Amino acid sequence: MAGHSQRNKIAAGKPSQRGAEESPFIKWLLIVIALGFSFVFLLLPLANVFVQALAKGWDYYWSSLAHPDSRAAIRLTLLVAGISVPLNVVFGLAAAWAIAKFQFRGKSLLITLIDLPFSVSPVVVGLMFLLLFGLQGFWGEWLATREIQIIFALPGIVLATVFITFPFVARELIPVMQATGTEQEQAALTLGASGWQTFWHVTLPSVKWGLLYGIILCNARAMGEFGAVSVVSGHITGLTDTMPLRVEKLYNEYNAPAAFAMASLLALLALLTLALKTFLEMKQAREFDRAQVAMPEVSDVGKQ
Amino acid sequence: MSIELRNVSKTFGDVNAVNNVSFSVQDGELMALLGPSGGGKTTVLRMIAGLEMPTSGDVLIRGRRVNDVPVQQRNIGFVFQNYALFKSMTVARNIAFGLKIKKWKKRDIESRVAELLQLFGLEGLDRRYPHQLSGGQRQRVAIARAMAPGPSVLLLDEPFGAVDAKIRQELREWLVTLHHDLNVTTIFVTHDQEEALEVANRIVIFSRGLLEQVGAPREVYEQPANEFVARFIGVMNVLEPVVEGGVARIGELEFPAHGQGDGQKLRIGFRPYAVQISSDLTHYRYHAVLRHTFFLGVLLRVELELPSGLIIRARMTKEEYSNQGLYDDCEVSFQIRQFRLLATDQAPLQPEEDLKYQVPPVIGDNI
C-alpha cells in the first residue's frame, strides 16, 4: 500500500483546478466512478472485515483475540516490528546521509540497491533466505553444527522483514536531506558542536517529519508483511506465526470470525497509519514550503 | 600576528585549488580575499576555519600551528554564503547555539543573546524563524550567531552575495562600522573588486589558486604587482603596439620603444583616468570621436574611437564633461598622460611613466 509514497506525495501537493472547467456531466461521471470504485473495492471490504469479526458478538471477538496462540502471534509481530524498524531507521539514516551528503563512486548503484526490495516479489525474498540459511542452504550445515536456528525462527522472520522494509526510511530521508544540504551542519561545527551534537541538534530536527513518516510506513509494512515471512517462518502455531500468518491459519481452519478479529487489528493499524501519514504529510509540506520560500529582500538594514 | 598561511596548497583530485599561498593577517584587520570565481579564495577561507585541510603547508592562528586542530577548537566565527541558519530554531536559539555547546549558564546565555540582538538591530525578532526574516536580517542573525561565543577571528564567505544591490551597499557600510566597534580580526571573501576596495583595509588577490598580490586598497590599485591585478582592480586599457623606426605604434598612437628593436611587440596599459580629453581639437595631439558615455554617478566613463578604429576608455568628472560641452559623437583631442609597460607573461610591472613627447599645452586651462 505504501510502495509509491514519494510520488503520491508530490502529486497530492498541488491539486489541479482544471477539472472545474470541464462539462458538469463529465465531472460528475468521473466523481461517481471514482467514489463507486473506492466504495466497492476499498471501503466495503474494510467494513466487511469488522462486520465479520463481530459476527458472533463482542465476547467471541475478545475471546478469539485472547486465545494464547493469537496473543503469541500479536507478541511476535510486535517483537519483529520492534527489532526491524529500529534497524532500518539506523540503516536508512546512514544510507540517506551517505547519498545526500557525500559524493562517491557507486552512488547510483546504492540508490538502485535501496529500491531492490520494492521490485523483488516477497516470496522470492523468503526463498532467498531459505536457500542461504535453511538446512539444505548455503550456510545451513555450518549453522546446524553450531545449533544456530535462523530459518523457522525469530531471526529468519526478522531478516525477511528487514529486507522487505529496507527502502522506506531511506527513500523518505534522501530528498529531505538533499534539500537541506550540509551547510547547517558545518555551521554547527564552526560553533563548536561535536559530530554527535550536530546530528542531534541540527540534522535530526531538520529531517524529523520525513523520518517519522518513513518509520510509520516501515512499521505498517513490517507488521503486515505476509509473503516473505510465510516462507521463512515455518508456521509453527504459538511460536513463529505472526499476525498475518495467524489470520491465514485461522481462516483455513474455518474459524472465520477469529480470522477476521485478528484481521481487524491489522486493518485498524492500517487506518491509524493512514491518519498519521496524512498528518505528517501536512506537517512536512509546510516545512518544505518554508525551506522553499523565495527570500523577499525587504530593505530593513537602514532601520536600525 | 593573528593568522598566517605558510606555503599552503590544496588539491581536489586533479584540481589545484590553492597553490603555495603565503600571507598573514594582523590582529584587528579587516581583510578581503578577492579574485574571480574559482580563484581559490573560498578554499583559503575554509582552510583557515578548519573546514578543509591543506594538502601541504601550514595554517597558524596566533602563532600556533592549527593544521591538526579540528574546526570546533579553532575559536573562529564563520558566516556562510547562504547564512546556513538553523531552520528549525528561532533567531534567539540560533544565536544561543554556540553558547549552549560551550555550556554557558542559562542566565549568561540570555543576557548575551539580548546584548547581541540589540547590537545587531534584531530586537523583537528573537522568536521568529529564519524563514520569517528578510535577507538582510538573516545575514545579521548569521553574524550575530558567529560572534556570540566571542571568536578570535570572524570569517565571512561572500557576505554580500545573496542580497540585492541596494541592501548590499548598506550592509557594506554596516560591516565596516561593526568591525570598527567590535575590533575583531575579520576576513571576508568577495569577487567584487569594488566591494574589496571599499570595505577592506587590506586585500589579498587570488587567481587560479595563486596569490597575485597582498596590499592596501590604494596600493593594489596604484601599484598593481602584475597585469592580472592591474586589469582585475579597476579598468585598464591594454594595447599591443609594434616597434617601427624606434617608436612603438598602434593606429595613431605612439609610445617609446623601450629599447626594443623593429618588429617587436610591446604591451602597454593605462588607466582611463590617465586619458585627458579636450573639446579644443588643437589642445592635444590625438584626435578621436566620443562614441559612448556611461554615467557612473559623479564620474563618467567615455569611449573614444580613433580614426583607425581603435577604442580607448577614458574617465572624467561630470563637471569636466559639461564644462567642455561634450556630447556623443563629438570630435575631441586627447592625450595619454601616464601608462605602463606590461610584461607579456605576468612578470612584475614596470612603474608608471609619463609620456614625454607631447604637443605642449596651448593657452587655456585644462581641467
Features of this protein?
A: 304 residues, MetI-like fold, 13 helices, 77% helix, globular, disordered C terminus, B: 367 residues, Rossmann fold, OB fold (Dihydrolipoamide Acetyltransferase, E2P), 2 domains, six-stranded mixed β-sheet, five-stranded antiparallel β-sheet, 22 strands, 25% helix, elongated
Fold and architecture overview:
- The complex is a heterodimer of chains A (304) and B (367).
- Chain A has 304 residues and is mostly helical.
- Chain A folds into 2 domains: 23-53; 57-291, MetI-like (MetI-like fold, Orthogonal Bundle), CATH 1.10.3720.
- Chain A has helices spanning 5-13, 24-53, 57-66, 68-101, 107-119, 122-133, 140-145, 154-180, 183-190, 195-224, 227-233, 243-252, 256-292.
- Chain A is globular, with a radius of gyration of 24 Å.
- With 367 residues, chain B is an alpha+beta fold.
- Helices cover 25% and strands 33% of the residues of chain B.
- Chain B contains 9 helices and 22 strands.
- In chain B, strands 6-7-8-3-9-10 form a 6-stranded mixed beta sheet, sandwiched between helices. In chain B, strands 16-20-17-18-19 form a 5-stranded antiparallel beta sheet. Chain B has a 4-stranded antiparallel beta sheet with strand order 2-1-4-5, with helices on one face.
- The interface between A and B is large, with 31 and 41 residues.
Short description:
Helices cover 77% and strands 0% of the residues of chain A. Chain A is an all-alpha fold and 304 residues long. Chain A folds into two domains: 23-53; 57-291, MetI-like fold (Orthogonal Bundle).
Protein topology:
The complex is a heterodimer of chains A (304) and B (367).
Chain A: H1 5-13, H2 24-53, H3 57-66, H4 68-101, H5 107-119, H6 122-133, H7 140-145, H8 154-180, H9 183-190, H10 195-224, H11 227-233, H12 243-252, H13 256-292
Helix pairs in contact in A: 2-13, 3-13, 4-8, 4-10, 5-8, 6-8, 6-11, 8-10, 8-11, 9-10, 10-13, 12-13
Chain B: E1 3-12, E2 15-25, E3 30-34, H1 41-49, E4 56-61, E5 64-65, E6 76-79, H2 91-101, H3 106-119, H4 135-147, E7 153-157, H5 165-182, E8 185-190, H6 193-199, E9 202-207, E10 210-215, H7 217-222, H8 227-232, E11 237-239, E12 242-244, E13 247-250, E14 253-256, E15 267-270, E16 275-278, E17 286-295, E18 299-305, E19 311-317, H9 318-323, E20 331-336, E21 338-342, E22 353-354
Parallel strand pairs in B: 3-8, 3-9, 6-7, 7-8
Antiparallel strand pairs in B: 1-2, 1-4, 4-5, 9-10, 11-15, 12-13, 13-14, 15-21, 16-20, 17-18, 17-20, 18-19, 21-22
